[in-house]
Write a structure and sequence with these properties.
The complex is a heterodimer. Chain A is built from two helices and four strands. By secondary structure, chain A is α+β, with helices and mostly antiparallel strands. Chain A is elongated and about 55 Å long. Chain B contains twelve helices and 16 strands. Chain B is of the alpha/beta class. The chains are: A alpha+beta, B alpha/beta.
């Protein structure tokens, strides 16, 4: 979308709110739903990628060092990665800010 | 005569000669014929009484090669409307028909059609709702979908049904509208009636009805996404756009009816008056019962009574201006609903009319009757009773919100 969502008026919408810009859902910050964030302890991580497989948001990416990290722009803080992690390398902490 | 209100008592001879061919035909079959003449691309429907003959005949037309359309025999009305959405989104001229429980089963998808601005045309053959099971007519189904964002047009006889199905395609597909349209005809009283009527010729339909040209269709080479997710920050704006759109559609509807009249010599209006000039007492009806009500008005006029009939044709968008104009000189307005809002104000039509008139300085007393439920007849004598009893209530008042006509106590 050309404007930020909070500036779009009803007159700016296409008929039926049809979206003509493919893939613009990636601009939607689902991360702001989050009340908890995953913290990775690299010393426990075995780089197995189970968190990558289970993440329902598809927001876990492998970094150049081989560790799997959640992209916090999209991470909703569901905690599935922490629950599934074999080595308990991920813990969920409260978002306090 | 006010704008948008036709006084039929002064307009019996509309002149201009006959356009089309005069046939005797069952109304349901005539509707299917006109959908065929409109060259619909997709029909997705599920048979349900009293609508079945419409889609049966369309299936025949497709099977016989008389209509080059995709006929999708779905497993439910929910699927029927869903298939219609897909077809309409791809730019196809799309038609379906349903009634009563079928309309209820479509309910959630109806909102999607209007919100996505898909110009589906549907005839709703009005039927009462279960339970107890009734296949006969009333307006409970139509009223239950009042807030779904569809344009809703009521018709009084077979000719009006056929004419308004044709108009419905033109209104729905107009680039200024792009909204789905329901044409409501009463179950059995209209759907199964064999009537003499004028069916248009194909070339006349082609002249009147432009090709459907949906502006943002689903196309692989130019992808779009429809019916997406809207968080709280944008949902209100989408609904405002929808509300502005359906209100603005009224001008296009008026224009379409006017041009239909110019082409076919039958004019339609949001509110139509019969013997309303100088009437102190007005009766308001919708749909086929207006025909009997006119006979009652004629009889009372012959007796020197100052009574007239208003026929509400356009239910959504609601014709506020025309209703206010039509009733402003009356002392009593008696509204007959064929549906009941349980535990509420009684008749939904009367409730909306009261609301429309509430802030007017000059307005009639509005009296609510509910009757004709589940196919129960109202005769000429019945309408005379309703008028007389309505006048009585207007003078004495009533503790009831409405009166249920003809119920055995």
């Amino acid at each position: 979308m050309t404007k930020p969502e909070n500036e779009i008026t009803w007159k700016d919408l296409n008929i039926g709110s049809i979206v003509t810009e493919p893939g613009n859902a990636s601009q939607y910050q689902t991360g702001d739903w989050r009340s908890q964030r995953p913290i990775l302890d690299n010393s426990k991580c075995i780089k197995c990628g189970i968190c990558y497989i289970f993440c329902p948001e598809g927001c876990v990416e492998q970094n150049p060092d081989g560790y799997f990290e959640a992209n916090l722009f999209y991470c909703k803080g569901c905690g599935i990665c922490a629950r599934e992690c074999w080595t308990r390398a991920i813990t969920m902490i409260e978002e306090v800010e | 005569m006010c704008q948008g209100v036709l006084d039929k008592s002064n307009n019996n001879d509309r002149g201009g000669g006959i356009i089309g061919r005069r046939v005797g035909i069952e109304v349901s079959l005539a509707i299917a014929e006109v959908v065929g003449l409109a060259d619909a691309d997709v029909v997705a429907a599920y048979p349900i009484t009293p609508q079945t003959h419409i889609v049966e005949h369309l299936a025949e037309l497709v099977a016989n090669g008389e209509l080059d359309a995709q006929y999708i025999p779905v497993e439910s009305e929910h699927s029927a409307m869903s298939a219609c959405l897909g077809a309409s989104a791809a730019g196809a001229r799309t038609f379906t028909a349903t009634a009563g429980q079928g309309l209820e089963l479509m309910h959630e998808v109806l909102y999607v059609a209007s919100s996505m601005r898909l110009p589906v045309v549907m005839t709703v053959v009005n039927r009462a709702l279960s339970s107890p099971l009734s296949v006969w007519g009333d307006h409970s189904d139509a009223m239950s979908v009042r807030d779904t964002g569809w344009i809703q047009i009521f018709v009084e006889n077979g000719q009006e049904a056929v004419d308004n199905v044709l108009c419905a395609f033109r209104i729905a597909e107009d680039p200024r509208v792009l909204l789905p349209v329901m044409v409501h005809l009463d179950g059995f009283h209209l759907s199964h009636m064999i009537e003499p009527m004028l069916l248009p010729e194909r070339d006349e339909v082609e002249k009147f009805l432009p090709k459907n040209d949906y502006p943002l269709p689903l196309r692989p080479d130019k992808p779009v996404a429809m019916g997406d997710f809207a968080p709280p920050i944008i949902y209100t704006e989408t609904k405002k756009a929808q509300e502005i759109n359906i209100r603005a559609s009224k001008e296009v509807i008026l224009q379409c009816w006017n041009e239909f009249g110019n082409s076919f010599h039958r004019y339609y209006h949001p509110v139509e008056c019969y013997q309303c000039e100088d009437a102190d007492v007005l009766l308001l009806t919708m749909g086929s019962f207006s025909e009997t009500a006119m006979m009652a008005i004629d009889k009372m006029r012959q007796e020197g009574r100052g009574v007239g009939l208003l026929k509400l044709r356009l239910w959504r968008p609601f014709p506020f201006k025309e209703i206010r104009q039509a009733v402003k000189n009356a002392e009593v307005l008696i509204v007959l609903d064929r549906a009941l809002s349980f535990g509420g104000p009684g008749g939904p039509v009367c409730s909306e009319i009261r609301s429309a008139l509430h802030n007017e300085e000059k307005k009639p007393k509005v009296i609510s009757f509910v009757g004709g439920l589940g196919g129960r007849e109202i005769t000429v004598a019945g309408f005379e009773y309703i008028v007389n009893r309505g006048i009585e209530i207007s003078q004495t008042g009533s503790e009831q919100e409405f009166e249920l006509f003809g119920v055995r106590e």
